[in-house]
Structure formats: structure tokens, C-alpha cells
Amino acid sequence: MHGVGGIWGAIATGLFATKTGERRCADGLFYGNPAQLWIQVKVTLVTVAWAFVMSFVLLKIVNAIWGRGRTSTRNASGST
Q1: Does the CA dihedral 15-17-19-20 come out positive or negative?
Q2: For the chain, what is the domain count?
Q3: pLDDT, tens only, 8-26
């Protein structure tokens, strides 16, 4: 849920951004600057790719240290 909301928020910034009252900001697509939307989409894609790669790397590290993490199929009484 947080990932979807974050992705939408980042892309929506490229749509709805306006520099009203803030000179350092850029206007978004709806205010005449389609380049800002493209910047937001590229940054979002890079962030998603980075999160995927880092999650995969961390999974491999955890797997190498602790193994697959499977528990025994035996119950408390010792039978299978």
C-alpha cells in the first residue's frame, strides 16, 4: 500500500506541481511543463528498480546466513 501511494504521489507531483509562491519549484504538466512529469516518472522507475534490487540482495544475504528458514514438519509431540 505504501509503495502504490508513494508511486502515485511522485507521479502526481509531475502532474499538479505549481510554482505559485515558490520560485525554486517547477510547474507540472497541467501548468504547462510536461518535462516535469517525465522527470517524475524516470525518478519513480529508478526508485522502484533500486528497491527491488536491494530487497533481492538483502534476501540473498539473509538466506546465506540463516538458510531458507524452514521449520521442522514435526509437531510438539514429536510425530510427523
Answers
A1: positive
A2: 1
A3: 999 999 999 988 877 788 8
